[in-house]
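Morning. Coffee machine broken again, so started the prediction first thing and wrote up yesterday's gels while waiting. Chain of 919 residues, entered below exactly as on the submission form.
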Amino acid sequence: MAVKVEELLTAEINQPARYLGNELGAAHKPWDRASVRWVLTYPEVYEVGASNLGHIILYNILNALPRQLCDRAYLPAPDLAAKLRSTQTPLFAVESKRSLTEFDILGFSLSYELGATNILEMLDLAGIPLTWQERATNDQNGQMPLIFAGGQTATSNPEPYADFFDFIALGDGEELLPEIGLILAEGKTNNLSREALLLDLAQIPGVYVPQFYDMAADGSVHPNRPQVPDRILRRVATPIPAYSIGLVPYVETVHDRLTVEIRRGCTRGCRFCQPGMLTRPARDVEPQQVVEAIELGMKATGHSEFSLLSLSCSDYLALPAVGMEIKNRLKDQNISLSLPSQRVDRFDDNIADILGGTRQSGLTFAPEAGTQRMRDIVNKGLTNEELLRGVKTAVDRGWDKIKLYFMIGLPGETDFDVLGIAETVRWLHRECRVDGRRGLNFNLTISNFTPKPHTPFQWHSVSSAEFSRKQRLLKGEFRGMRGVKVNYTDVRISAMEDFVGRGDRRLAAVVRRAWELGAGMDAWWESLDRAYKAWTQAIDESGLTWKYRQVESGEWNLFEKEEEHDTDADTDTRMNLTPGAGTAGAGTGAPPLLDRPLPWDHLDTGIDKNWLKIDLQKALEAATVPDCSFEGCSRCGVCGTDFGHNVVVDALPIPEFAGEFVPNTERKQRLRVWFGKVGDMALVGHLDLLRLFDRVIRRADLPISFTGGFHPNPRISLANALPLGVTSTGEIADFELTESIDVESFREKLVAKLPENIPIYKVEPIDLKAPSASQLLEAAEYVITVAVAGSLTENGELDRENSAPVSVAPDANWEAWVKTIAQTEAFWRVHTTKSGKTQDVNLRDRLHKLELVEQKAESSTSARSGTSEGRAVLRFTGSCRSDGNLLKPEHIVFMLEQVSQQEIQLQQVQRSQLILGYG
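Came back before lunch.
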């Protein structure tokens, strides 16, 4: 049964369009025709989840399958979460509006160590028991959906979260999820029990069912029945760019663009980088597929920007050719290209040529360390010369702001290396200075190294005190340095990430208790102290404080300095790998640190654990390992039958540049459009509506004229902003075109690409020299529904600020109140301008006409008494000018309260027309 979402999304809910599920590209498959019903459940707010490429790809793949239905759900913002709880309404999927308990399977993305608390929040809001044990107990009638997780954190070490999931999907999901869907359909047909169904799923490579495995005393994990494999294989799939084309949200998202993957996997071998280890082998997408996906996607979505995605875009050798080909094909459409963080050593004129457009995008490089020795230890494969050449190229091509990522706390790091970060920035400033131009600005992010499973540095950690000391060193060094903004990662977050990320099943109780104490992911950014307190309290209550203190003090520190805080660049370091070294295992006869079982050893990611040990030893020697995509095999263990091999596309000839976008500013025709905003589109805000029209014009391929300047915009002008939540049948927009087209043809193309709840009523040609609709706007007509909530005396609001000296008989009805307003000369109210100034305004001067359309008593008593202290429908016309002279529905309520001395509620508002003054 569908949840009555329209009753939830009232005026106090921020950005209600998040929850509508009516975006362009939403599937809306018939419920009754599906044999398996999925929800891809993203544990973040809509603006993050709806723009996540993996979320979009898997959603499109599942809905492309016959008899498989896939809906979506997102973490509700705190305002809606509170309302769901207060009204006892379950969390719903956005398209079908059905409770999550009505589906067969819920899939969560787990891509961050501390993100599981948001998953528990969503399960609780949905009324779903949090653990697989509780769900099994409560599933007598098969009412509980299966709960699974995928994503980077789920693939690397799911053990801290094992109690919460029925199974884990390891690795790429493009082929794995359809296989799961087939097993689910067969299981439903055969009426399998929950346990039997999970046992069938466990036979699929890439499916890990935690309840079929037990944790030993040493933290290792082993099967508890013979039917499941000892080690579970990570799945690998080939990227398919066509599935990237999908959802076009109405609200602005964090990645508000079309994103297409060009390369999956990275073989650079950075020793701290978990994605680089967990996504091998590298797989380049065929250039023609990329070009076709972008060209088709931009036309289908109407986006004005696209991004090419990879862990290392610059290692896609065809990037300059592909980028230039796309740029040439779309050069007349005001399109921009952006890339994520790039390899600075590969940034050259060819890549600079394809970036940006009329809007130059930002540049991000990640040197990671401030000295050559440290870059060699982490196997960054970057020299000072390459770093300088890349930054100089950016400056020469017009960039004056560059973002740089550095890391502190890496194995073998000395104070000399830490201070080398500041010295590197100082050196780049000096070497890249250009006479006659303002200086180069750097935005630095200094993060704390956090060890990740399945990497050579998984055996190393640094104490929180040492991180704090190194941050103080850098803050002192950067103090007074001009043109540099530095952001530091909070040390407490890093310690908690380490504690959870390398933990075992004992941490499930910590995660659950932290959620109960309010440690959602949002709390880390909005109230870090509160979140940290919740996590530490949860750790204390679980009896694992001793374990956290070990992590916080650098439990697995592989390096010892011969001299404390020596700043000599040649300070000797040695690896501490002997039995009982450090704080863990001392005097116990435990195996050497590198040979101890790890909570994630039962996951077969393809990376040989012995290879990780060897690579760690090379790090000690500051020895680099070449990129196996372009040089010899590094023997990491991935390439073979199970995971495939590197697929590298050679560099291609770069097409000749066809020229930058030149905005066509010609104005050959102006069309005025009268349109409506009804139904759920009333919950789409004004700026989002402007963005919608821009995309609609692009999708309809209409010849819109652009403004000039550095940031050309389409000449689309709305007469007046409609308040959020207000419906309308009388909105007006002006469109200016570069060529004259048939009015009816324009209307048909516009209607074909607009949502059905934005109807077009009329289109008329307007003289190019005529004033715009916003300039001509004089008044607006509204129809409002109001109701009496009780007397102001009862509600303690009799002496209201700004009240007018108006009296009326206590038994007056709506008709009398309307008449009194019409006969009153002044209703004074204090108005505060945007600049903060106050002024007295006579609202009566702005009211042109007020009439009672309909009245309805709320009770038989009021009906018999001759009053109508219930609901009424009123129509009014009032000032609506661009200079701020406005009469709002709230002002009518204010006047009604003054004449009635009753509290009046504004229940519904519709703007029926905007009135232009042509004379």
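DSSP finds 29 helices and 31 strands in the chain. Going to sketch it on the whiteboard this afternoon.
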